[in-house]
Every structure is written in C-alpha cells, then in structure tokens.
Predict the structure of Cytochrome P450.
Amino acid sequence: LTKNKRGRSLITQKQPPSPPGLPIIGNLHQLGALPHRSLARLAERHGPVMLIRLGFEPTLVLSSAEAAKEALKTRDVDYSGRPISFCSGKLTYNNVDMAFTPYSEYWREMRKICVVELFSLKRVQSFQPVRTEVMDAFIQSVAASAAEGEAVHLGEMSFELTASIIFKIAFGRSFKGSLMDGKGFEKLLHETTALVGTFAAADFFPYVGWMVDKLSGLHSRVDRVCERFDGFLESVIREHLNSDKLKDDGHEDIVDVLLRIHREHVRSGATWFTMNNVKAILIDIFLGGVDTGAIVLVWALTELVKNPEVMKKVQDEIRHWASGKERVTEEDIDNLKYFKMVIKETLRVHLVGPLLVQKKTTAKTQMLGYLIQEGVRVVINAWAIARDPKVWDQPDKFIPERFNDSLVDYRGQHFEFIPFGGGRRICPGINMAMAMIELVLANMLHRFDWKLPDGMTPEELDMEEGFGFTSFKKVPLKLVPVDNY
Ligand code: HEM
C-alpha cells in the first residue's frame, strides 16, 4: 500500500491496458480526422480506461460514465491539471488565463474571481437586454430573407449572432461597425480555434518537435494570430481606460469588470493580476463563448429539420406558450419543457467539445483499480460516453423524449452526459451559454418555419462532422425561413 503526495492511499500497482502503437509516434496515427470516433472504437476493444501514447506523452483515455465520475468527482483534484500546449500557451500570454492554465493557487484565485464577477447568474441576467436586442436584429434579418424566399446560411448567421452577443457583453459595444466587423473576426477566431486544436509537434516530441513546428510554419501562424488579437484587445482596453462613456447602456461590461479587478489588485499591493491576465481572460471568453453557441444552434436546427415530427411538437409547444406574442421572452422559456429536452438531446448527440478540454494528473493516483502516474495527459471521451449503448437506448438516434421525467442534466453531476465537463474545471459559462442558445432558438422556431432548399428531403441532409477542438457541422446548413408572423 502506498500513498500519493496528498496522503491518499493507492491500493493498486496494476497498469491500464495499452493498445499497441508504433515506435516514436505511439498511437498518434490512430487518431484520424475525428479523434473522438477513433478513440471510441479503440475503447471498444481495449476498455473504458486505456493508456495510449501520443508521441512521447502517455495519455489516459476515459470512455465510460464510471471512469468520468472517478476523474471528475471521486478524485477530482488529482485530475484537474491542464497539459501545457505550445499554441494555447502562446495565445494566452503564457497560460495566464483560466482555461489553459495548470492547476495551481493562481488558477483557484482566477476561477474564484471569474465565477463571482463574470459568470454569476446575476451577471448573466444583467445581460438580458443585450441578448434581446441582438436577437431582435437577427430575427429581422431572417425575416428579410423570408420575404425574398431566400435560403439563409445558418452557420454564418449564428456565428454573427453569438459573436455580437459576446462582443457586446465583453466590450459594451456593437460588433457591427466595429474594427472586427465583416469576415475579419470570424477568420481570426476560426484560425485561433484551429490552432488550439492543432497537435503541435512540440507538445508530443521534446527537442525535435520545436524544429518541426518552425519548419511547418506553425510558429509564424501562431505569431500572426497573437499579434492580431493582441492589437485588437489593446485598442479595446485603451478605449475603456480613456473613456467611460463608450457604452450604449449603463451596464458594466466584462472589460470594465476586469479593469476594476485590476485596479483593486494594484491598490492592494498585489502584483499577480496584470493587463496580460485581462487579455488572456478575454481570449478565453471568445474561444469558449462564440463558436460553441453557434455550433449548438446549427446542430439543433439540423436535427429538427431532419426529424419533422420533433420539429412540429416543439414548435407547437413554443407557439402555445407564446401565442399572440411578438417574441418569446426569457421568462416564457421556463414553461418550455419539451424545448429544453430538444436542447439537451442536441448537446448529447452533438458534443461541441467531444473530448472536453484535455486534463493532466496532478499527483500519482488511481482510475478504476489501475495505477496512474503524476503528469499524465487525460482525455475524457464525453462523446463516447454520451453514446454508450450500455447507458443510452438507441444512442445514435435523436429522441428528446428520452429526457422526459428524467433528472439527468448537463451540469456535471450526471457523468453519462457531460457536454460542459465536470468537477472543479467544469465550464463556468453554462448559464451564459444556455441563456443565449435558448432565447435565440426559441425565437427562431416561434417566428419561422424552416424548409430545406431546392426540393431536398430530410433524409438527404448531410450530418458529417468536422473537428478541430470543437466538433461542428462540416457541410454548411442552408434553410429557407417561412415567416409565421
Ligand atoms: C454550448 C456552449 C459551451 C460548451 C459546450 C462549453 C464546453 C466547455 C467544456 C467541455 C469545458 C471543459 C470542462 C472540463 O475541463 O471539464 C469548458 C471550459 C470552459 N468554458 Fe465552456 N462551453 C460553452 C460555453 C462557454 C461560454 C459561453 C463561456 C464564456 C463566456 C465559456 C468559458 C469557458 C472557460 C473559461 C472554461 C475553462 C474553465 C477552467 O478550466 O477552469 N464556455 N467549456
């Protein structure tokens, strides 16, 4: 019997099973274009706890609710680290953000501040006027397309919508007409997400990896993105410092809050919270908050168009509760029981982050009777867990009714369904994300019927996924809105 550095007993010496790999690269070649699917197949053969090797990095892959529970609840603290990655490290001013920073006293302080100041229910509610204003403008532009009988590009529109909401919440001013309007911001954010999802050679091959990344052009790609983001954030911060009259409404936006925290820290003599922290947190919010919401909206509509009986049922419910109203309000949404099941089912079938955000063990520990060393990379295959046939009946089918009379939700307590992760590093943006997704989707379904263009049938709808940190609909969704107003 041994103890780990936290004094917890380790009663096993048994090593997890390891699928055979190749010399040097280990199992890297087995990840393929959709790693969550490849790893799920590998787990079918080798079990829910596997130790693979990505280059020189031993990596624990967990693929059952039971294993997720051990990592996110029973031994949460041992599994709360983050691996250092070249790209995310550069993008977050050397990991002085919250999402990618290793588990430490710094992370605990930062998380405490952010949860209280930025992500509290009160703060999320205070942004209700912003959500409503942006959503109204969005609905008007869809109505204009409906009047012309034009198909709309749901991916692009949803991105612009979530970007506009997060932009206004973060900076207190509109996305439209800003420095980042047009395709500039979308390109920048997508390049940033792609880089965060890139397997940099330096992360898996010590010494030679750095050279490989330099020769492959990764260094210059990362430098370009960092420079653009930094220039943009600098200008936003400067404007906030120079003027307090920029905001259209009287609310504190997120930059205001972060600058206030910065001032308070400087006043108290603390030195750890610098302008780089302010910028790095803003990067987290954009990386975490924009694409994710847009991706959920697109998948939800895709599934609804593919399943017309579900579409009818959910529209009937929304139109019943908001009958005669110009728009569905956030208060109305509490009544929409079936609608909420539709969103849950979307999050189950289409995990935005199918492998969550990678973790790292912070001490020697255990996993379902196996011994796990300190410093091991940990991948939780939330996608495989959400489709585990031992837990879910007909797991590949979109059946919102499965959540009828079920207490299972996505807040990190039900380990068979963890789209936002769980444990101490659970997504702090759940309330912000759900408020945005629910309001917009409810109104899209209330006001419009959605038809496939060019006589396409629901069976012909392409469901292919693309992957790069997030998992999105690969073939853009185009639908013709029919105004119901
Ligand atoms: C549908 C929308 C969203 C999904 C599916 C999602 C999913 C996730 C997941 C899976 C994690 C990793 C959890 C873990 O390691 O166990 C995470 C972390 C995080 N998310 Fe989200 N997220 C969403 C929206 C947001 C929003 C709107 C924000 C902010 C405005 C946000 C900010 C963050 C941050 C800062 C972290 C890192 C937390 C930490 O490491 O302490 N997310 N999110």
In short: The first strand starts at residue 2 and ends at 3. Residues 70 and 202 are 30 Å apart (CA to CA). The radius of gyration is 23 Å. The longest helix spans residues 218-242.
